Amino acid sequence: MDTKHCTVDGWVDAIPVPGPRDTVTFDVVVRPANIEAFDDDAPDTIVTCTSGDPRITHELLNGIQPGDLLRATGTLLQPAGPGEPARLTVDALEVLDTALVPVLQDMVIDRYGDYVVIFNADRDQVPVFSTLGQWVGLADNPDAITTLIDIHERVDGGDD
After folding, report:
1. CA–CA separation, 69 vs 158, rounded Å?
2. Pick from 24, 93, 148, 156: CA 20 to 30 A from residue 125's CA?
3. pLDDT given for residue 53 in this prediction
4. What per-residue confidence (pLDDT) applies to 14?
5. Residue 15: other Cβ atoms inside 10 A
6. For residues 111 and 126, is the Cβ–Cβ distance under 8 A?
7. What does the longest C-alpha to C-alpha distance in the chain come to?
8. Distance of alpha carbon 86 from alpha carbon 102, whole angstroms
9. Residue 104 pLDDT > 70
10. What b/e sequence results for 69-102 when a residue is b if at least 16 CB atoms lie within 10 Å of its CB, and e otherwise?
């Protein structure tokens, strides 16, 4: 196996995943500096990275999200064959830029005083319930939540 100490700059492709023995694995999308020389449909290079350094593992599992631009330095193991990813064992990591918008999970539950709302990344409408589970209504969008709660409190007195 051919190894080489190198540094790659790339965007995090997916949420980093914890691995065995306190390691973490993540993929970065690496584009060449002279991207204009390639066809628009040329595939990106994916480098699979792992690290067992506790500081790097903590940062990857708690502070990194897809779309962040990283500089990863370590030992690169060339792929065994065509179509297989290169593997980089990371011993130094630097965040060069963060993604513009945090990645939403499938569903997020939030509390507005005596009310609970459920945000779904696939829908604009937001279901609203009282904290005791009573259906309040469906807000057309996140900006309409407080209006729906105000109407509910005026009509029903906010009682469950």
Report:
1. 46
2. 156
3. 93
4. 85
5. 13
6. no
7. 72
8. 28
9. no
10. bbebebebbeeeeeeeebbbbbeebeeeeeeeee
